[in-house]
């Protein structure tokens, strides 16, 4: 349940980031200052910008973790029950750490890695993807798609494991009923 709560929290952060980004850009356009110049650093430290960028990455990671968690629950139910809440807490701490490292990496990439000075006003206050290096959105989109496909592949295995478990349960129950009634009928 803790992992699903983390998924909900990451989805909420993405929603808040996207909503704030829309409100921010709407206010800029209403005030007529959307074409004013700003620095890449001022763009990337805006909560709507970094929330929407980092939460996209975290959403796919959490989806894969949920997929693996469901697979463990279906394919290895006895082991899964023994894992307890401590493993879920470790996963939450690990995913949160990945998010913080990605955020620091995003900030460092803009502050130290740009070809131009991050304090030079070169972008509009709308802060579109131009503040990031050209390769960043392409790599992010590719990684999100590949990790999403991994999640789908894991869920296919969850489906297969579930069907296999249900077939075994169904056959075992049916065999037990047949044996029970056969025993009763033979001893009448």
Automatic annotation (TrEMBL):
InterPro entries: GPCR_Rhodpsn_7TM. It comes from the Eukaryota. GO terms for cellular component: membrane. The chain crosses the membrane at residues 12-33, 45-66, 87-114, 134-158. The keyword Calcium does not apply. Its main location: membrane. Keywords: Membrane, Transmembrane, Transmembrane helix. Residues 1-188 form the G-protein coupled receptors family 1 profile domain. This is G-protein coupled receptors family 1 profile domain-containing protein. It comes from Plectus sambesii.
């Amino acid at each position: 349940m803790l992992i699903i709560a983390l998924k909900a929290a990451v989805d909420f952060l993405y929603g808040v980031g996207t909503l704030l980004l829309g409100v921010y850009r709407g206010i800029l356009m209403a005030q007529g200052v959307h074409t004013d110049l700003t620095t890449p650093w001022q763009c990337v430290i805006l909560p709507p910008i970094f929330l929407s960028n980092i939460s996209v990455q975290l959403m796919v990671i959490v989806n894969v973790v949920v997929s693996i968690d469901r697979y463990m629950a279906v394919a290895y139910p006895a082991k899964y029950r023994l894992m307890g809440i401590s493993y879920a807490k470790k996963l939450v701490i690990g995913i949160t750490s990945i998010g913080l490292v990605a955020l620091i990496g995003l900030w460092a990439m803009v502050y130290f890695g740009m070809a131009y000075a991050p304090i030079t006003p070169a972008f509009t206050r709308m802060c579109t993807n131009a503040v990031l290096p050209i390769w960043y959105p392409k790599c992010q989109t590719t990684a999100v798609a590949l990790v999403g496909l991994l999640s789908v592949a894991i869920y296919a295995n969850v489906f297969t494991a579930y069907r296999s478990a249900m077939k075994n349960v169904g056959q075992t129950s049916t065999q037990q009923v047949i044996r029970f009634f056969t025993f009763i009928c033979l001893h009448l």
